[in-house]
Design a protein that fits this description.
Blueprint lengths: L1 H14 L3 H13 L2 H29 L3 H18 L16 H16 L3 H13 L2 H29 L2 H22 L1
Length: about 190
């Protein structure tokens, strides 16, 4: 249960103000089709985070010894610093057919690609390495993504402008730092 709850909390906090959240806002503003956008986000996140969690779990099986705890702990401390750096997303999507499948597949592809190498994907891999529970980590990280991106789709750009993103980034950094310190202290 810890793997699920920690994954949900860390990913949801880290996702606020992230480029994928900004993409959700842009897509919602451009297409005004929340259901295919939400389903596309869900599909992309499940695929991307499953890939990351499996990679993290596999790597953790090959890496043994106390130094693994240091790698994971220091990675989370690095995520703390990374979370403080604002993301920029300046592009609007080009015109695409606004049918349900068109919006769904465009959203799925865009989210999958933009999430590659993102802090939430890397955090998912590290959480899977730490907890050795791919299913719980993927479920938690996906829920965390949806908890943030769902409202972003419905509330759109106006609500995002009102969020104190600087403070949210600080909260995400503190969450990552606390996790990193916890990993280092409990090994």
């Amino acid at each position: 249960m810890d793997a699920f709850l920690i994954s949900t909390g860390l990913v949801s906090i880290a996702e606020i103000g992230d480029k994928t959240m900004l993409l959700a806002i842009v897509l919602a503003a451009a297409w005004r089709r929340p259901l295919p956008i939400l389903l596309g986000i869900l599909a992309a996140t499940l695929g991307n985070h499953l890939f990351a969690a499996v990679a993290g779990a596999v790597l953790s099986h090959w890496m043994h010894g106390p130094w693994v705890r240091w790698v994971v702990g220091l990675a989370f401390l690095g995520f703390a610093g990374w979370a403080l750096i604002p993301d920029r997303f300046d592009e609007r999507p080009d015109t695409t057919e606004k049918t349900f499948p068109g919006v769904f597949w465009t959203t799925t592809a865009a989210f999958f690609v933009i999430e590659m190498g993102d802090k939430t994907q890397v955090a998912t891999a590290m959480l899977a390495a730490q907890f050795q529970s791919v299913a719980a980590v993927v479920a938690g990280s996906t829920l965390g993504m949806m908890l943030v991106n769902g409202p972003a789709v419905f509330l759109g750009e106006a609500a995002a402008r009102r969020l104190p993103l600087r403070w949210i980034r600080i909260a995400a950094a503190l969450g990552f730092a606390a996790t990193g310190l916890w990993v280092l202290a409990t090994g």
